[in-house]
Amino acid sequence: MNFFQAYKMAIKSIVSNKVRSFLTMLGVIIGVGSVIIAVGVAQGSTNSITSSLSSLGTNLININITGRNSNRNVTYEDLQKFQQENSNLIASIAPTSSSSATVKSGTKNKSTSIVGTSPEYADINSLTVQEGRFLSQLDLDYNQRVAIIGTAVSNAVFKSESPIGKTIKIVGQEFKVVGVLTQTANGQDSSTDDRVIIPISIAAKLSNSAAIRNFSVKATSSDTVDKAVESLTTFLTKIYKSSTAFRVTNMAQILSTLNSITGTLTVVLAGIAAISLVVGGIGIMNIMLVSVTERTREIGVRKAIGAKKKNILTQFLIEALVVTGIGGILGILVGVGTIKFVIGGLKLVPEVYSVPWICLSFGISLLIGIVFGMYPANKAANLNPIDALAYE
């Protein structure tokens, strides 16, 4: 008996027991589908986060002052001078001071984030205004009480009116609204639209602290980030007398760490999902053992008329491979369909179809067919013809 004949007999056996064959495939379908969905969700989430971070720029550097080991703190003037001296490495520097406060105008009020910064903040964070203007150097030089507000604040305090030229109160002090930030999060609370930006010089007075604890830096390009970090480290070490008094991070490092973490997470999720493939393999072995028992007389007849051990072994292995193969294909359709119509349709995360993982999960399903089909196939091939014919 050749391979083609063994294949036809295997297919005939599977078709004659449709329900049992489908139940046998079910474990493989769920296993393969689960792996594809788990990897798709993990990689889609990674792509979404990475895209958001990359949009900020891979040439961004953030500095957080953690120590107080110096007789003085870095000032905005220090940062401006440093940027001018290193303009070949650093395009912009902006100090930031963040706090929470209630913004009031008439009878309306809203709790929001207050960001004290400088004009360079807009360039570093790719901010634009949809109405009015952003901070200017004159605002800082002359301590102007001006504010740029997000649309969430504008909607809550001014409703449908234009806020430009109107005043708001922050910690009891009046500020003139000179700009409205371009909406980026549908004007939702606790988002990038829910904040008020004021000059860093005024923010220092509101908090009764002139010390700059955080500032953002934009390198001239992604290629100059490392040299810019070295220069910043040297500059800050001279002021704070210690390299441990501050922490320097850049977006490239964050992205690298994120990719490492999510890569591990993807493997873990896929591994957990793959457990169902093993469970499906055990189901295949059990069903095939039942099939061997049911077909004992058939096997005895075939061996009595000349079928060799390898012929019986081949037939049962082909049955196992066909079952897992069809199950694997259906699992791929289930996984891809779920990503396309459920995850993609609901826009939970970006749609990602990982071809290597699809091929790997299908390959594992076939391997499981061989591994878990070997024992029943071997048992059938080793049956004694006389005992098999006498089996009731």
Report on this structure.
- It is a single chain.
- This protein has 392 residues and is of the alpha+beta class.
- It has 2 domains: 3-52 and 257-389, no CATH class; 67-244, no CATH class.
- The chain has helices at 3-16, 18-56, 76-85, 120-124, 137-141, 151-158, 200-206, 225-240, 251-294, 296-304, 309-343, 355-381, 385-389; strands at 60-65, 90-105, 108-117, 129-132, 146-149, 167-170, 173-181, 195-199, 214-219, 246-250.
- It has a 6-stranded mixed beta barrel.
- Helix 2 runs antiparallel to helix 9.
- The longest helix is centred in the last third of the chain and has 44 residues, at 251-294.
Distance from N terminus to C terminus (CA atoms, Å) equals 27 Å
The largest beta-sheet arranges its strands as 2-3-8-5-7-6
Can you write the helix and strand succession as a string?
HHEHEEHEHEHEEEHEHEHHHHH
| Number of helical elements | 13
How many distinct domains?
Answer: 2
Radius of gyration over C-alpha positions, nearest whole angstrom = 34 Å
Q: Approximately how much beta-strand content do the residues carry?
A: 15-25%
Question: Which SSEs are present, and which pair or pack?
Answer:
Layout: H1 3-16, H2 18-56, E1 60-65, H3 76-85, E2 90-105, E3 108-117, H4 120-124, E4 129-132, H5 137-141, E5 146-149, H6 151-158, E6 167-170, E7 173-181, E8 195-199, H7 200-206, E9 214-219, H8 225-240, E10 246-250, H9 251-294, H10 296-304, H11 309-343, H12 355-381, H13 385-389
Parallel strand pairs: 3-8, 5-7
Antiparallel strand pairs: 1-9, 1-10, 2-3, 2-6, 2-9, 4-7, 5-8, 6-7
Helix pairs in contact: 1-11, 2-9, 2-11, 2-12, 9-12, 11-12
